Amino acid sequence: MKFRLFPETVTPYRPGDENRRAGLRLDANENLWGPSPEVAAALRKLRPDDVAAYPDAGELTKNAARRFGASPGRLILSNGADEAIYALMSLFAGRGDSVLMPVPGFGIYTLAAGIHGARVCGVPLGPGFEFRRADIIKAITKKTRLVVLVTPNNPTGTEIKKTDVEAVVRRAARLGVPALLDETYAGFQNRTYSRMTRRFPNLIVVGSFSKYFALAGLRLGYVIAGPEVIAALHAILPPYSVNAAAMAAGRAALESTRHYENVRRGIVQERKKLAATLRKSGLTVFPSAANFLCVGVGPAAERVRNRLAASEIFVKAFPGAPRLVNCLRITVGRSAENRRLAEALESARPPEALLFDMDGVLVDVSVSYRRAIGRTVLHFSGGRVTPAEISRWKLRPEMNNDWDVAESLLSARGIDVPRSELVCVFQKFYFGEKGRSGFYRSERWLLPAPVLRRLAARYRLGIFTGRPAGEAKLALRRFRTERFFEIVIAREDAGNRQKPDPYGLRLALRRLGARRAVYFGDAPADMAAARAAGIPAVAVRPPGPNDVQAWSRRMKAAGASRFAENAAAAMEEFL
Fold this sequence. Notes:
The chain is an alpha/beta fold. The protein has 4 domains: 7-15 and 32-258, Type I PLP-dependent aspartate aminotransferase-like (Major domain) (Aspartate Aminotransferase, domain 2); 261-348, Alpha-Beta Complex (Aspartate Aminotransferase, domain 1); 353-360 and 444-574, HAD superfamily/HAD-like (Rossmann fold), CATH 3.40.50.1000; 368-442, no CATH class. Helices cover 42% and strands 14% of the residues. The protein contains 23 helices and 21 strands. β9 and β10 (292-296) form a beta hairpin. The radius of gyration is 33 Å and the shape is elongated. It starts with 23 loop residues before the first strand and ends in a 5-residue tail after the last helix.
């Protein structure tokens, strides 16, 4: 089948497929403050005859023209701004033609041009997405068929000054090139350039009731231009493309000046507050004059977007868009909605640092330390302790290290041993003495070096362990992994504030200069310390015999946010 248009040259616009109504919709720049009560009343007053008859656009056309500073003969209504954009593109751009616009820009223009075989020639915005007047003026030539300006710009939110608009339109006029000015978000600036169409016959202004007036679901747009363009649009647009409900809502919206001005002020205030909150958390927030923010979150933007979606918070990501691949576009909502977004975004962002407990996570101590526990108990009590009993005691939240476990097992048998004496015996079994090999030699490293290399290239890595510093560093030297970890917070560093006290984790964050981290541990004390420190904790199941169900219950109760079979599996989402 042969098409006369060129659908093979465009990438279709695909709305999100999530159940957005069940969540917080911050991905489509909808006005979450909603339309005025007068709009709702007008829709309720629709009669059967209003629905059965073709709608009359005359009254709304007059009202809209008066509101936007135009005469009725210079304004035409459309089924959303998109219908107007497609129609204008069909008037001015054909196969092989060039459409000029700043980029990043609104993707519908690229789509509409491509359908007609034209192509958008993008003029890059500045590093802060600021408009560069000189660049676009230089790019306009006699071969340019249409210049497109969007202010405030979607998806960046940045605006174009009036003097810049005039300069570009004047340059285009000299070369006989029409200039389309998209004002979809101009209501949030309380500004319109539509009156400029009287001075510049080549200027065409496109607007919408979707955003400022919160009528996105009714699809109502308009074009303000000279009589020649309006006549051409009347010729090619369907005669009744705007429905009766949209017209009734549009008339009521135009009469609800006080409501929408209050909404505009509220959105501007909340936009400033949200921008300040996000900047305070270390994010890049670009200037915006619209009801949304363009926020730089880093290379994991799409992953952050997906994590937010899993929490039923929907924002817009731009995979494959070079200038926007690290950005999210976030609609400004009400205060409570913005707080929810900011909190969820902080949790969804990738960590700056990964922090590890050592025993059971990085090092398999199922033979070494556990054997030392058993032999220490045997030495002082004369009785043996089973691996299952050791496992049960290690799951207690107050057990910070294996000396504590050995001491508790002895106390349960009615035996009290001075701590210094217990530690001395334990260490002899662990390190060995008099030519006898110590149990530490049975330890093995659990996280492969290639994985560590990849992690170290992306994150700052550190260790927070209950081991004494000498033992922790000995293990790192033995397994040749010292170079991967910037810091080691050991038993001596935490002093009398051992896990589950969060002191050691907070110290690790300070020394790394990081604010966001994830902690990987295998014991309830690890999880509790992370929870108290306000960072996510991943429970890594230690090697050796374990009651997996009991371990999982204890770890979840202590604050584990996720579970992993082993350290390598825990790293999958971070690579």
